[in-house]
């Protein structure tokens, strides 16, 4: 589903005609988006036809029968009440879910190198194309998959940037964090990773500039300040490089005067 909808069998891309008609491919994409949930026939009809045919259930059943004939009976499960994707097909987007979850589990277990590898593998898959179901750009039924893709990218970038920093790859962490803040200018976790990466790469001034950019965006667009953790990281960088930032205020507005988490 990442990019245009496509079907592979034994690693080989099937031509559109081998899969079926436009409606058949759309039905398969719809079932893939729903991730195993039984999709009622009425919903299928609404997606496939602007004006329902005289015998909608029979028409849907015919399309399903042709898909099963072309791809195998275990591709689609269900009957006249509704249909779902079978257990045999693998969907790239949901494979990415597993990869990101694995990366996060490695992080929670204190295993930065496997976490970084898993997150980078997920990013490679997710960034194959930055649009889900590009051949269905106006399809509202595809929005859950697009939202999932966006969330997975965010999570994978968070893990990859953090673990790249932990394993000493500051330049890699910086590149990943820069991509994350370009994708979402309000992503404070990504900004913190970016600030830490700049600092680790010997560029504390750019870390402070990144903080200021975030602060201005949040104040202008949302009327709020950066979160406490972000402010504390900013103050910590200022204090670590106090000669470079002589004269700059190093108080964190989110921390009480004593004790301050930033010290």
Helix count?
11
Low-confidence stretches: none
Q: Please tell me the overall pLDDT.
A: 92
Q: Output the radius of gyration.
A: 24 Å
Largest sheet: 3 strands, antiparallel
Note the beta-strand portion. 5-15%
Oligomerization state of this entry? single chain
Corresponding CATH architecture of the domain at 8-85? Orthogonal Bundle
Which term fits the overall shape? elongated
Number of strands: 5
Instruction: Output the strand order for the largest sheet.
Output: 3-5-4
Please report the distance between the alpha carbons of the first and last residues. 48 Å
By CATH, the topology of the domain at 8-85 is Arc Repressor Mutant, subunit A
Write structural notes for this entry.
This protein is mainly alpha-helical. Among the domains are: 8-85, Winged helix-like DNA-binding domain superfamily/Winged helix DNA-binding domain (Arc Repressor Mutant, subunit A); 187-263, no CATH class. It contains eleven helices and five strands; from the N terminus they run ββααβααββααααααα. A three-stranded antiparallel sheet has the order 3-5-4. The protein has a two-stranded antiparallel ribbon with strand order 1-2. β1 and β2 form a beta hairpin. α10 runs antiparallel to α11 (228-240). The longest helix is centred in the middle third of the chain and has 24 residues, at 143-166. The two termini are 48 Å apart.
What topology emerges from the helices and strands here?
Blueprint: E1 8-9, E2 12-13, H1 16-19, H2 22-33, E3 39-40, H3 41-48, H4 56-71, E4 76-79, E5 82-85, H5 92-108, H6 112-126, H7 143-166, H8 170-183, H9 188-200, H10 204-221, H11 228-240
Antiparallel strand pairs: 1-2, 3-5, 4-5
């Amino acid at each position: 589903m990442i990019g245009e909808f496509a079907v592979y069998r034994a690693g080989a891309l099937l031509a559109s005609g081998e899969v079926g008609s436009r409606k058949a491919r759309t039905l398969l994409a719809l079932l893939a988006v729903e991730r195993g949930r039984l999709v009622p026939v009425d919903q299928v009809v609404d997606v496939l036809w602007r004006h329902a045919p005289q015998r909608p259930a029979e028409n849907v059943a015919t399309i399903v029968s042709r898909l099963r004939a072309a791809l195998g009976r275990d591709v689609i499960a269900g009957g006249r009440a509704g249909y779902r994707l079978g257990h045999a097909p693998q969907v790239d987007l949901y494979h990415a879910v597993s990869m990101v979850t694995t990366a996060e589990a490695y992080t929670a277990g204190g295993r930065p190198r496997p976490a970084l590898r898993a997150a980078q593998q997920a990013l490679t898959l997710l960034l194959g194309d930055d649009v889900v179901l590009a051949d269905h750009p106006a399809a509202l039924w595809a929005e859950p998959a697009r939202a999932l893709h966006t969330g997975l990218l965010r999570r994978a970038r968070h893990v990859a940037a953090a673990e790249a920093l932990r394993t000493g790859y500051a330049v890699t962490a910086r590149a990943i964090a820069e991509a994350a803040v370009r994708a979402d200018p309000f992503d404070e976790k990504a900004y913190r990773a970016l600030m830490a990466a700049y600092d680790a790469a010997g560029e504390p001034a750019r870390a402070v500039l990144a903080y200021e950019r975030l602060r201005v965006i949040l104040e202008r667009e949302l009327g709020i300040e950066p979160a406490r953790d972000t402010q504390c990281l900013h103050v910590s960088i200022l204090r670590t490089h106090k000669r470079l930032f002589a004269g700059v205020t190093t108080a964190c507005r989110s921390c009480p005067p004593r004790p301050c988490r930033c010290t």
